[in-house]
Amino acid sequence: MNNYKIVLVPDLRFPEFKDCLGWENDTVGNTYDFKVTNSFSRENLNYEKGLVKNIHYGDIHTKFNTLLDISKEKELPYINLNTSIDKIKAENYCVEGDVIFADASEDINDIGKSIEIVNLNEQKVLSGLHTLLARKKNGKFISGFGGYLFKSNHVREQIQREAQGAKVLGISASRISNVNIYYPKCPEEQQKIVSCLSSLDEVIEAQAQKLEALKEYKKGLMQNLFPQEGESVPRMRFPEFLKDGGWEELLLGDAAKFSSGGTPSKDIAEYWNGDIPWISASSMHDLVAEKSELYLTDIAIRDGASISRKGNILILVRGSMLFKRIPICITGRDVSYNQDVKSLELKKEIDNVFFLYLLISNESKLLESVTSTGIGAGKLETDGLKKLALRVPSNKDEQLAVASCLTNLEVSITSQTEKIEQLILHKKGLMQSLFPKIIKN
Questions:
Q1: What CATH class has 248-392?
Q2: What percent of the chain has pLDDT over 90?
Q3: Class for the domain spanning 23-184
C-alpha cells in the first residue's frame, strides 16, 4: 500500500455525521472469523422439500441480492433429505450477519462476490460448495453494513488482487483476511448508508420485476398474435381483419432469398477498422443489428465481403448458443456478417418487422432442428430452414398492425431496461462516494 494514500472520510457524507467520529481502518481477519462450509453439488439439492437450506456459489453469482432475506427468497434450495448432514457442527450453520463469499469464478469481476444474510426467517441454512462463510467477531458492524462494505470499490479491488489461478480463479479465507476494510465508528452512520443503498436496491428490484412482467406479457402476446401449430388464424386478431380469412401458408425458402456471410482476411489491415458493422454471434443480442465489436472498410466490401442491406433479417445458423436460443435480428443499416450467419432478403409483399417477430415466434421449432457439429456447437441446415412452414396474412395491413403492436411493446421493454441501467449506474456512483477511496501517490 506504499504507493497509495487512503482517504478515510468518503466524498459523500450525510450532513448529520460530518462532525462525528471518523472512519476506522482494520482488516477482514481482525473483524471476521471463517467457518467450515460444505461441498454439496447441485445433485444434492432440490427446490421442493427438506429441513436445511443451502447457499451454492453459483446462486451468489447469478441470483441473490447484496442483502439476503430468506423470507423473500423463493429460489434457495434445500439439501436432499437422503444427504447426511450429521457431522456438520452447530457453529457452522449460518447466523444473521454472516457474509458469504463465492471463492471461485472464471471472471475476475465476480471472484469473491458476496452477500450478507440479514434475515434467516427461523430457518436452518448452510453455506455450500465453493463458498467462504465469514462471521463477525464483534459488534462493530450493524446488520447489512458488511454486505455493502464488501461491494465497495477499494475492497473489491483488493479481493481481485488476492485471487489466484489461470482459467478458473480462486480465493481463500486466509487471503481475504488480508484485505483492508474501512467503516464509520458511529453505528447510526452505518445504518444510514445501509438504508440508503438498500432502498435503492428495492427500487431496482421492483423495476426488474416490472421488466420481467413486460417480457412475459410479450411472450404471451406473441403466442396469440400468430397462428399456433395446426391453426390457420391467430387466437387474437385485430377486429378489422376478422373477415379476411385464414393466413396463407408458405415455406421460408419461398418467402426469402438466402445469402451467406464470410470473414475477410485478418492479415489485410485495409479490410478492418472501417465503419461497416461486421455481425457475428456476439453482435446478435438485440433485435436490431447495427453495432458490432468489429467493423469493415469499403475496401473489404469491394473485394467481396458479404453485405446485408438495411431491413434484411439475420439468423445465426452455427454456434454454441443455438442449443439454448436462436439469435434472430433485423438490420438497422447496411452491415456485413460472418459465415455463421445467414441473411434473408424478403419478398416485397412481406413486411420485414412482421417477419422478424414471426420467425422469433417459431423459435421452438427452430430449436428442434438444431443438430450438433461435433465440436460443441450447434447448426441449422439451410435446406431445413428453407422448408420451415410459416403462416402469413395476405393483407399487408394486418402484417403492419401486428408488427406495430409488438414494436410498441418492445419500445416499452427497451425503455424499462434503460431505466434499470440508469439506476444501477446511479448506485455505482453512490457506492464510490459513500465509502473511502484510495488515491495513487
A1: alpha beta
A2: 88
A3: alpha beta
